[in-house]
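user: Please supply your own:

assistant:
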Amino acid sequence: ASITINGGALQLAGNLSNSGTFSNAAGTLELTGTGVQLVNGISTLANLTVNGSGTKGINRNLTITGALTMTAGLLNTEGSKITLAGTATITESNTSYVLGQVETTRDLSTAALADFGGLGLQLTPAAGSLMPGLTTARRVTGTPMNAGGPGYSIPRYFDIQSAVNAGLNVTMVFHYLDHEVAAYNEADLVLYRSGNQGGSWAADSNTVADPANNLVTLTGVSQFSYWTAGDINSP
């Protein structure tokens, strides 16, 4: 059997299992059901909207070429990953968001802000500095990182890999959602960096917290790797 979405929206209240041909060059798959919904056997979608209660899931890596829009409900990637291709975007809120892995690659070859399609990370290379070039940001949510001390990070971190990864001068803005910092004093949040894939973490006290806008900012970032946010008083 085959399903083709070339425009408009296909609203789905139950599960979707593909064992034939599924084509979505344009248009939107919209998950509107109540409770758990599973999307099985789909590897590429133009647009995906989650607009139903409960938690939705995928069973394989999924590439979005247009827009991933979280309106109501959660989307859990489980052991899979969502990739935002090209100029694809993601829109989330504090009550409707993706749990798990979302990744995208953007070109940081000029001194201009890159927001990675709304992933919650903004990087701006300084004018006249060495440019990172093609940069991949993988966001993982729902999993706090142990910073090597008695506390844990907020349940969000970024794995950032760039073509050029030394001698940089980049301003990093790290966004978070309210529910991720419910147990923290937001004014005490700082960025932590790990150079060994989360094995150990070091805080940067130059981080500037902005609780009103749910973000922390760090200037002069010279190298990418794993980054998260946590309380400076309980690393």
Summary: DSSP finds no helices and 19 strands in the chain.
